[in-house]
User: Which sequence fits this backbone?
C-alpha cells in the first residue's frame, strides 16, 4: 500500500477523479467540444460521459455524431483523461432515441385492467374478462366470464405503447423481450465497437446504461392514449407485461396466470400476501435481467467495454417492485454497477448498500454514483463533499456529477441544474473538490472491505404484498421503513453489513464452517429482517450455517411462506436461530463490530465508517453525516447546511493485530499526521473529533510515512471582530432579470404582463404547435423545414430607472431573430460576447435613450414551429437595484448581511469583501479568521496580498498568522457565488425546493420572486 499510495497521492491519477455527464444538448461543433474538454480537465475531472441530452441538434448515432465522439476520445487521450459512452438519447436506455421502436414489435407493453370494454385499437389485444362481486367498493370475488356477460366485470388487455415525442416519435423498448434488446444492441452498441474497439477499456473507459426498467415512467403518457374513450370511464390500471409472459409463467410455475389476473391487482380472500403476485414479479425480474442486463452485460464483457449506469427507481422496496423487481439482480451483469443520488434531500443509503453488496460479493471493484443533480444553482461545495463522502463511506468510489452542459440555450438551462461547468462562476475553483476525492479514492484503492454481517434483503416479501393500486401511502411508507429501520439500527451501531439477494445467494452462496460465503465475501453473522416469504434455498443455507455455529439473528415478524407458499414446518428451522427485538439487535451483534466509534461509552450514530484490510495494513475512512440517521424520513432529509452535528471528542477502537501505528491522511492537503494510540485486548484505540460534515482517514501499518506537524487548532477565544462595513469588488456585472412582459400576437391588443414561459406557451397554442419542453422530440429529428403558420410576436419589458447608469448591456438568446426598441427608438444588437454561456449574447444599450422613471424595451419576432422560443432578458451593468427592481446607484460599501438586500438583488457572480484592521504587534499565539453564517459556494481568503486560501467546507476557519504584520492589515474575502438569483427557480412557494428540475422553473405558485440570501451574513471574527 505504502509506495503505491504515496505515488498516487503525488499524481492523483484520473482514475480516481470524476467523469461528469457532459450534456450534448445543441449543435455539436468540434472546436467547442475541444474547448470544453480542456475546461473539464482544468476543473480536475478525470473524464466525461458523452451524453445525448435535451436540445441535441446533431443526429444521434449519425456520422457527424461519431466524428465528434472520435475527436473527443483523441483529445481525452492527449490530456490523460477517459472518454465514456452513454447508450441512449436522453433516458431511459433501450430505444436508441426511438430508433429501435420504429418497429412496433419491439415496443413496451402493459397489462391493462378496465371496468369497461376498451375501444377497438390495433395496439390493444383483449385477454380475459372476469365477473366480480364488490365489497366496500373493492372487488372481493371474481370468476372468468365472457366480455359481454351481464353484471360487473373486469376486462384485461395487452396494450402496446403508442409513439410519443420523448422517444422522438417512437416508444420505450420492451425490455422483457430478448429480441428487442438485441436490436437495441445492434443499433446503439455495435457501431461503437466497429469504430472504437481499440479504445475500449482504455481511453474509452465504459458505457453507461441509464434507468432501464420494465415499466418506464413515461409509459404512463402512452397509457393516456389507451385510456381515452368516448364515454367518461375510469382509466385502466396497468402493470408490466409482455405477450410471452403467460407461456413463460406456465413453464416456470406450472399454472395459468391468465385465469387469475385480478389477483395481480386485488387481495384474494382478503389475503394481503399473494403467491401469484410474488411469482409474477419474480418472473418479470428474471425476464428483464436475462433480456436486458445479461445480454448487454455479456456484450460488454466480450468487447472489453465495462457496463456501468444505474437502474430505475432503485431506492426503496416498493419502487423497485414497480420498475425493476430487484435492483441487486441486475448488478451481477454490470462490470461497474452504479446508483444515482439526486437532490440533497434523499438519504437513500439502501440504494448504495444494494449496489455495493453485489459488487463486494462478486468482485466488482468500481462502483459508480450519478450524483449532485437537482440540487440547484446555489448548492455549495460543502454539499458536493458531503453527498459524495457518505456514498464513499458505504462503498461507492466513482462519481459521475450531474450535469455539465454543452450549452445553456433554451430549455437546457432548466435541465436539473446546477451546471457543474463553466456556466457556474466558481468553476475554476472546483479542482479542490476533485483533488479531495482523488485522494480519498486513491487511499481506498488498497485492501478489501471488511463486513462481517449479512442482511437478507426482503424484496421478495414486497413482491407478494398488496398491489400498487391497493397500497395506501401509509402502507407503502411502513413497507419501506421496515427495512430502513433495520439498516439505520446497524449503521447507527457502527455495524457495517452487506445485503444478500436470495436469488443471487441461490447460485453464489455456500457455507464453510462458521463462515457463510457469497462469491468472494464471507460473513460471520446473518440478520433476518421482517419477512413474509423466504426461499427454501436460503432457509437450507441458513440452517446449515447455524448448525455449524454461525450466528443467525431474526428481528421482527418471521416469514409464514416459503417460496411464496404458506409453510408451517419451516418454523422448526427458525427455532435454531436467535430472536431479538430491533432495539436489542445492535447489542446482540457487538462481537462482530470491527470498528467502534463512541462518545461517553455510546456508539456515535451519525458517522459512517468504512474499514478496508490488506496485507500488513488496514485503513479506516469515517464521515460525519450530520444528524442521527433515523431522525428524518429518508426522502425528506434537511439540506446539507442544516446538518450541524459535531463531535469534539470521540474514541475509536478497531480490531487489530497490534502491529504498526496509526497515521492520519489529511484528504484536503495530502499530508500525514501521527496519531497517538494504544493497543489493548486485540484492538487499536485512539481519540479524534469530527467537525460539521467532517471526515477523517486513518491507516494502521508498520510502514514509515512522511509525517508532518499538525496545524494549530483554535481555542475559540475572540481576539477581535472585523468591522461590519466593507469595501467590495464585483467580479461580474450586476444583473436585472426581465422575465415578464406584456405581449401582443399579430399586432393585436396588448395583453397583460406575463411570465415568459407562459407567453411562449400562448404563441405556440396560437400556432397549434407543441409547447416547448424537455419531452419534445429532439431538434435533430426535426431538421427538415416545418411548414405551417407564422405569427408576429411583440414583447414589452418595462423597467424603472432612478439613477441612469453610465453603461448598460442587454443579454439575450438568439438576438438575430429579434428586433429591438428602447423607449420607442430602434436599436441594433451589436454582439460583444457572451454572458454565462455562449448561447446568451451581450450588446451595449445606448444609455442616452434611458430616462428617469419607466423605460420600455420592445422586442419583436416572427414566431414559427422552428423558433427556439422566448427566454428571459437580462440587463447587465455597474448599477444597483432597489428592492422594487429600480435601477439605482451601486452601493459604495456593503454591510455584513445579505448583499442582495443592498442593491445586488439578482447578482450572479463572485464578490470580494475588503476590510482592514490594525495590530500594534503580531501576537506570538496563532490567530485564525473565523466565519459565522454566510451563503455562497465557497470562500477564498487573502491577507495582505498573500496567496488565496480556499475554505470550501466546514470548519470555515483559517490560520492567518504567517500573513500578519504590524500596523495596517488588509483582508480580502471572496464569496464565490452562483446563478440562482438570476436564473431561478423564482416562483415556487419555497425558495429552496426539494427538487430542482425543469418543472420547478416553469411553475408559478406565487407572483413575487423567491431569492436566496448571499454573502457574509454574520460578522467575521479573528480568534485564537
Assistant:
Amino acid at each position: 500500500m505504502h509506495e503505491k499510495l504515496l505515488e498516487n497521492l503525488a499524481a492523483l491519477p484520473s482514475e480516481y477523479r470524476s467523469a461528469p455527464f457532459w450534456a450534448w444538448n445543441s449543435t455539436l461543433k468540434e472546436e467547442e467540444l475541444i474547448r470544453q474538454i480542456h475546461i473539464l480537465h482544468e476543473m480536475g475531472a478525470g473524464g466525461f460521459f458523452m451524453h445525448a441530452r435535451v436540445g441535441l441538434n446533431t443526429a444521434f448515432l449519425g456520422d457527424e455524431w461519431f466524428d465528434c465522439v472520435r475527436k473527443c476520445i483523441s483529445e481525452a487521450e492527449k490530456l490523460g483523461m477517459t472518454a465514456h459512452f452513454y447508450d441512449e438519447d436522453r433516458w431511459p436506455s433501450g430505444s436508441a432515441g426511438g430508433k429501435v421502436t420504429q418497429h412496433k414489435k419491439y415496443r413496451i407493453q402493459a397489462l391493462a385492467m378496465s371496468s369497461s370494454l376498451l375501444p377497438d385499437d390495433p395496439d390493444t389485444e383483449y385477454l380475459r374478462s372476469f365477473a366480480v362481486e364488490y365489497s366496500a367498493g373493492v372487488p372481493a370475488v371474481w370468476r372468468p366470464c365472457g366480455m359481454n356477460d351481464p353484471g360487473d366485470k373486469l376486462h384485461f388487455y395487452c396494450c402496446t405503447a403508442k409513439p410519443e415525442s420523448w422517444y422522438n416519435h417512437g416508444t420505450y423498448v420492451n425490455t422483457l423481450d430478448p429480441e428487442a434488446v438485441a436490436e437495441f444492441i445492434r443499433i446503439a452498441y455495435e457501431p461503437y465497437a466497429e469504430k472504437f474497439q481499440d479504445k475500449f477499456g482504455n481511453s474509452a473507459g465504459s458505457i453507461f446504461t441509464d434507468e432501464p426498467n420494465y415499466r418506464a415512467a413515461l409509459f404512463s403518457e402512452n397509457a393516456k392514449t389507451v385510456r381515452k374513450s368516448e364515454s367518461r370511464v375510469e382509466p385502466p390500471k396497468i402493470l408490466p407485461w409482455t405477450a410471452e409472459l403467460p407461456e413463460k409463467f406456465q413453464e416456470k410455475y406450472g399454472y395459468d396466470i391468465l385465469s387469475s389476473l385480478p389477483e395481480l391487482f386485488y387481495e384474494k380472500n382478503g389475503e394481503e400476501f399473494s403467491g401469484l403476485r410474488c411469482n409474477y414479479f419474480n418472473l418479470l425480474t428474471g425476464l428483464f435481467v436475462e433480456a436486458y442486463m445479461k445480454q448487454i452485460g455479456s456484450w460488454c464483457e466480450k468487447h472489453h467495454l465495462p457496463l456501468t449506469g444505474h437502474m430505475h427507481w432503485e431506492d426503496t422496496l416498493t419502487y423497485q417492485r414497480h420498475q425493476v423487481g430487484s435492483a441487486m439482480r441486475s448488478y451481477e451483469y454490470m462490470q461497474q454497477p452504479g446508483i444515482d443520488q439526486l437532490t440533497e434531500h434523499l438519504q437513500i443509503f439502501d440504494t448504495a448498500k444494494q449496489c455495493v453488496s453485489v459488487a463486494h460479493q462478486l468482485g466488482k471493484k468500481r462502483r459508480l454514483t450519478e450524483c449532485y443533480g437537482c440540487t440547484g444553482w446555489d448548492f455549495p461545495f460543502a454539499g458536493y463533499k458531503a453527498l459524495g463522502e457518505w456514498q464513499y463511506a458505504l462503498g461507492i468510489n466513482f462519481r459521475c456529477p450531474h450535469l455539465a452542459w454543452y450549452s445553456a440555450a433554451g430549455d437546457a438551462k432548466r435541465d436539473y441544474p446546477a451546471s457543474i461547468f463553466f456556466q457556474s462562476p466558481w468553476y475554476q475553483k472546483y479542482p479542490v473538490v476533485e483533488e479531495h476525492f482523488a485522494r480519498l479514492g486513491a487511499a481506498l484503492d488498497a485492501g478489501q472491505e471488511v463486513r462481517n454481517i449479512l442482511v437478507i434483503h426482503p424484496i421478495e416479501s414486497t413482491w407478494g404484498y398488496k398491489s400498487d393500486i391497493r397500497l395506501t401511502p401509509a402502507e407503502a411508507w411502513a413497507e419501506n421503513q421496515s427495512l430502513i429501520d433495520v439498516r439505520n439500527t446497524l449503521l447507527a451501531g457502527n455495524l457495517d453489513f452487506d445485503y444478500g439477494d436470495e436469488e443471487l445467494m441461490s447460485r453464489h452462496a455456500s457455507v464453510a464452517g462458521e463462515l457463510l460465503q457469497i462469491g468472494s465475501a464471507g460473513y460471520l453473522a446473518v440478520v433476518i429482517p421482517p419477512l413474509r416469504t423466504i426461499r427454501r434455498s436460503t432457509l437450507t443455507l441458513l440452517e446449515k450455517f447455524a448448525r455449524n455455529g454461525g450466528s443467525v439473528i431474526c428481528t421482527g415478524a418471521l416469514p409464514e411462506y416459503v417460496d411464496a407458499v404458506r409453510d408451517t414446518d419451516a418454523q422448526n428451522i427458525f427455532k435454531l436461530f436467535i430472536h431479538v427485538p430491533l432495539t436489542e439487535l445492535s447489542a446482540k451483534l457487538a462481537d462482530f463490530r470491527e470498528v467502534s466509534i463512541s462518545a461517553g461509552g455510546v456508539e456515535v450514530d451519525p458517522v459512517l465508517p468504512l474499514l478496508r484490510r490488506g496485507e500488513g495494513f488496514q485503513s479506516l475512512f469515517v464521515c460525519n453525516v450530520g444528524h442521527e440517521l433515523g431522525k428524518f424520513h429518508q426522502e425528506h432529509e434537511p439540506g446539507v447546511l442544516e446538518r450541524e452535528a459535531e463531535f469534539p471528542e470521540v474514541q475509536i477502537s478497531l480490531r487489530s493485530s497490534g502491529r504498526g501505528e496509526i497515521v492520519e491522511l489529511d484528504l484536503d492537503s495530502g499530508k500525514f499526521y501521527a496519531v497517538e494510540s494504544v493497543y489493548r485486548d486485540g484492538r487499536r484505540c485512539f481519540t479524534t473529533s469530527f467537525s460539521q460534515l467532517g471526515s477523517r482517514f486513518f491507516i494502521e501499518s508498520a510502514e514509515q510515512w512522511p509525517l508532518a506537524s499538525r496545524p494549530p487548532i483554535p481555542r475559540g477565544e475572540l481576539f477581535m471582530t472585523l468591522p461590519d462595513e466593507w469595501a467590495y469588488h464585483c467580479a461580474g456585472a450586476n444583473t436585472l432579470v426581465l422575465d415578464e412582459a406584456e405581449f401582443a400576437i399579430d399586432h393585436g391588443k396588448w395583453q397583460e404582463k406575463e411570465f415568459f414561459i407562459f407567453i411562449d406557451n400562448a404563441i405556440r397554442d396560437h400556432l397549434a404547435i407543441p409547447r416547448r419542453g424537455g419531452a419534445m422530440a429532439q431538434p435533430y429529428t426535426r431538421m427538415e423545414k416545418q411548414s405551417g403558420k407564422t405569427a408576429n410576436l411583440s414583447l414589452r419589458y418595462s423597467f424603472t430607472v432612478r439613477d441612469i447608469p453610465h453603461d448598460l448591456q442587454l443579454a439575450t438568446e438568439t438576438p438575430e431573430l429579434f428586433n429591438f426598441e428602447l423607449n420607442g427608438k430602434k436599436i441594433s444588437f451589436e454582439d460583444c460576447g457572451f454572458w454565462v454561456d455562449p448561447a446568451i449574447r451581450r450588446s451595449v444599450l445606448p444609455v442616452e435613450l434611458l430616462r428617469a422613471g419607466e423605460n420600455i424595451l420592445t422586442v419583436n419576432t416572427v414566431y414559427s414551429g422552428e423558433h427556439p422560443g422566448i427566454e428571459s432578458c437580462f440587463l447587465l451593468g455597474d448599477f444597483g437595484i432597489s428592492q422594487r427592481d429600480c435601477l439605482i446607484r451601486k452601493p459604495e460599501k456593503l454591510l455584513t448581511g445579505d448583499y442582495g438586500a443592498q442593491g445586488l438583488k439578482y447578482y450572479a457572480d463572485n464578490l470580494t469583501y475588503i476590510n482592514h484592521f490594525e495590530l500594534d504587534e503580531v501576537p506570538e499565539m496563532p490567530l485564525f479568521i473565523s466565519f459565522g453564517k454566510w451563503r455562497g459556494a465557497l470562500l477564498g481568503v487573502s491577507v495582505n496580498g498573500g496567496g488565496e486560501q480556499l475554505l470550501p467546507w466546514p470548519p470555515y476557519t483559517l490560520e492567518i498568522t504567517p500573513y500578519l504584520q504590524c500596523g495596517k492589515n488588509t483582508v480580502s474575502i471572496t464569496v464565490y457565488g452562483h446563478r440562482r438569483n438570476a436564473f431561478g427557480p423564482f416562483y415556487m412557494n419555497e425558495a429552496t425546493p426539494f427538487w430542482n428540475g425543469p418543472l420547478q422553473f416553469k411553475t408559478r405558485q406565487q407572483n413575487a420572486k423567491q431569492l436566496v440570501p448571499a454573502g457574509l451574513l454574520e460578522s467575521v471574527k479573528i480568534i485564537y
Remarks:
- The mean pLDDT is 95.
- The first strand starts at residue 21 and ends at 24.
- The chain is about 20% helix and 30% strand.
- The first helix runs from residue 2 to 11.
